[in-house]
Amino acid sequence: MGLKIVGTPIGNLSDISARALDTLRNCDAILCEDTRQTLKLLSHYSISKKLISFNDKNSTEKIPKIIEKLKKGNDYALVSDAGMPVISDPGFNLVDACHRNEVEVDVIPGPNALVSVIAASGLNASHFVFLGFLPRGSKLRKTLKSVSELKMATVFYESPYRLKNTLKEICAISPEARVFVAREMTKVHQSFYRGNPCELVEKVIEKGEISVVVEWPKKKQNVNN
Q1: How far apart are the first and last CA of the chain?
Q2: What is the pTM of this model?
Q3: Could you give the C-alpha distances from 174 to 132, 181, 224, in angstroms and in order?
Q4: CA Rg value for the chain
Q5: Span 180-194, mean pLDDT?
Q6: Domains of the chain (ranges plus CATH)?
């Protein structure tokens, strides 16, 4: 009983685990970021289950009711649109509320874009900083400059419409950096790009879900503002 945090595929529906499918079949309801996205997965595996919309916009008002149901013995699964819930997705506030209310929490591991892009990159990311989605506007370069000074790999997700601009910012900060861009991982149109940020600006395709790894050069560089 309690809350089950369930990892779901980041693209290829065959990547879901047997334990995850059992959990989704046997729970009382599924809390999902977008019910339409979760329904595609459930339909693929012929699972019929009550879906409850749970996202950044409605989580605050729904958490008290969910906690009440869980404390009464209901068994809920928490999923995101893709990958592991809570990692750059809504849900951490619910998990926190469960711990504070002594509601049992379990995790059913699954695919994750963060780990997958590091594995595919071939870059040195034994130590890394994960930024989730980068800030917009003037904060973008400031953020990238700050993490570049740590001399640890940087991993982040990016909108395809902002990707080229982000690569230009990395090029301005550190043209010698090594960058790996993964587009549509595990899907039919999966594409990998690797090189320095300046050359990748002309190569990447601005479409699909994007994950990026940056390996900053060890030698400190002077950057003009």
Answers
A1: 55
A2: 0.89
A3: 20, 16, 11
A4: 20
A5: 97
A6: 2-108 (3.40.1010.10), 113-215 (3.30.950.10)
